[in-house]
From TrEMBL:
InterPro entries linked: Pirin (IPR012093), Pirin_C_dom (IPR008778), Pirin_N_dom (IPR003829), RmlC-like_jellyroll (IPR014710), RmlC_Cupin_sf (IPR011051)
UniProt-recorded name of the protein: Pirin
Xref: Pfam families: Pirin (PF02678), Pirin_C (PF05726)
Source species: Flagellimonas eckloniae
Limits of the Pirin N-terminal domain: 64-140
Residues in Pirin C-terminal domain copies: 202-304
Domain of life: Bacteria
Annotated family: Belongs to the pirin family.
PANTHER family per UniProt: PIRIN (PTHR13903:SF8), PIRIN-RELATED (PTHR13903)
Amino acid sequence: MSDAILQIFPLGFPWQTQDPFLFCVYHLDHYPKGNETMGPDPKLLEGRSIGNDFTIKNGWRMYHGQTIPGFPYHPHRGFETITIVNKGYCDHSDSLGAAGRFGQGDVQWMTAGRGVQHSEMFPLLNTDKENPLELFQIWLNLPKADKFVEPHFKMLWHEDIPVIEEENAQIKIVAGNYKGNQASNPAPDSWAAKAEHDVAIWNIHVDADTEYILPKANTSVTRTLYFYEGSEIRIGDQKVNPNFGITLDASQEVLIKIVAEKAHFMVLQGKPIEEPVAKYGPFVMNTDEEIQQAMKEYRLTQFGGWPWPYPDNVHDKEKGRFALYPNGSLEKKG
C-alpha cells in the first residue's frame, strides 16, 4: 500500500497543509508550576525574548505573552480557527464579547468571517505541579462566497466529541464521519458544514507493535496524515519517522504498521475549495486588494473594538471550563 503515499515531508512550525486547510500548528509545552497570576515565576522569564518567545527553552515557550504564555488580542478575517486542547487550558476572549476556558480534550471552533479579534492565553492553573499543554490549531479556509459571514464562536466539549475505540486504536472525531460515526456539528457557515465537502479532522492514537488501517475516503479529497509522536511506522515498504507528514491518496485504505512505541496521528482531509488564496498574517482573502482592504478596515474599526480589560485577558483562576456566547448565554462545564 506504499503507492498510496504521494509525499513525505518534515513537520515544521506551522505544519504544511493542503486545500481546504491553510495551516496547522502543534504546541507541546511542559510549563512549570503557575504563580498567583497564572504565569511562570518571573525569574524563569529571564533570558527570554518576551513578546516574541518561540524558541523552546526548558521545555516551553511564552509565545507573544508577557507574563502569561499565549497570544494576546489579534485580528482574523476570511477563514476559521479550530483549536484542539488535549492537555492544559486555553482562555479565549474576543471582540464579540464571547469568552471561554476550555481544555482537557475540548475544541473551540471559531469562524472569523468578516472580522474578529480574539486572544488565546494559556493560564497555568496548577500551583503545586507542572502545567503541560498540548494544543493543535488548524486554519480552515472559507470560500469567497463566505468570507464575509458573521463571526461565530462555538464550543465542542470533550464530553460530546465522539471517540471510537477499536481493537488497537482510539479515534477522536473532531470533524467528519469515521466509519459511520459522525462528529458534532461544526460552526454553521463552515466549509465543513456540508457533508459533500467530506472534511475530516481525526486525532488517532494506535498501540505499539500493532497495525491500523486508515479507511479510504468516500469522495475525492486531499488527505494528509501527520505523525507527530511515536518512534517509527511503516506503510508498505516505506519507513516513516515521527515528526513527518504524509500526503496520501485518499481513494486507498492504508495499512500502517506501528513499531515499538504508541503512535499519535492527526488526519486532515477535505474537498479543495480551489480558489485563489491571498494571505497576509491573520487575513486570508482571494486577492491582494482584498487583503489591503481588510487591513484598512481593521485600522478604522478594530473589528468592533476590545471589550476586555487587558489584551492578554485571562479569566478568574477558579472559574472552571465555560463558554460565554455573544448573545450573553453562559454554559458551564466545571
